[in-house]
Design goal:
- This protein has about 375 residues and is mostly helical.
- The chain has a domain of about 160 residues.
- Helix 5 runs antiparallel to helix 6 and helix 11 packs parallel to helix 13.
- It is elongated and about 70 Å long.
Length: about 375
Amino acid sequence: MQMIAMLRIPVIALVLGSLAMSGTHAAEPEPIQISSANLKGGLVKKDIAQIQLHTKYWVAELAAAKTAGGVYRAREGILADYGKYATSLRYQVEFARSAAAVITRAMGKLTANDPLVPVKEINCAIVISKMPQLTAVTAIDAMVGSTNPGVRFLAWKGYEGIRKQVIRKGGKVSNTLFATLTKHAATEPSPLVAMVIIDVLHIKKSDLTAKPFTKAFDRSFNTLVGMLKTCCDRLADGDAAWARPCIAAIPVLLDAAEFYKPDNKKSTLIIQQLVNIAQAAAKAFAATDGTGNGAFHCAPLLLKVEPAIGSLTKDSGREIRNPLLDRKMSPKEKSSAVRRGVLEWIARLDELGIKKPVFTPIKPPAPTTQPAAKTSV
């Protein structure tokens, strides 16, 4: 829950379990009862009707709740019903299908004058993120476009949970995932949410024994490259929090280098991404003279990205690492030395086709009634 707290979700959503429950609610339906034969052999209409009755009841309770305690009660109720027959995939697939449909409709009807809307949205997203079934895709796909960063964070966590199922399934459901990634990845405004998206994009070596994953690799990699452009632009603009998704991208890029070997064009493109990250981090580090938030976020990134570049170029240079770890240098001296170090790397890699990164300045947000904070969430 720490990540959600960092996304500026109201504290009330994080301590629901400790709040008193008040208000009235409709009578709870009789417990779901499904025979073991049906759980194994296939659900019948009566079984599906029970599931639908319970999902509609709990979501209606959540949507109508007047207190945070009421929201919590409804969330735990629907999750308890989902887990009732945890060994039956048929049951959980059908339950997720029903819950996704009901939750998607309910979230579209929440009214802006309800002060609990952020809490209700977050708890709907928590429910869906805990149902890793393909049948929940419709709700997940709707949630990744939410204006609430906590909802987007949980929705992408939901996608992360079913990513392997989606890629194995292929066809329409896989196309939907990559269309959603293409639409949202490069424009995600929260670095913490961006980290989860990068996790979704990470097709690991262990996955590549299956053909669907090798087919999906290009789409994942191309989406990552587009996303990193935005990450580096924001980081170079001085928003040091964007060092986090850049750190998350390094192992993804190294796995990509292994996958594409010996493709020289792809190798150059991957090294360029790492150099872009290094240059953006050096700029953000220097923007604070090597102190404060810039140092806290960017120093770890710089220490990770240099050996990554070195491993792909067979170059053991330490032009970045040495000044960062030099205790005799002042923070300002370190920041200047690190920028020089990145430029030395770029000059040395010129023969590989590596170019000096060019970043696009981030346009300031439209004026609001309150001053905007620089640090992203």
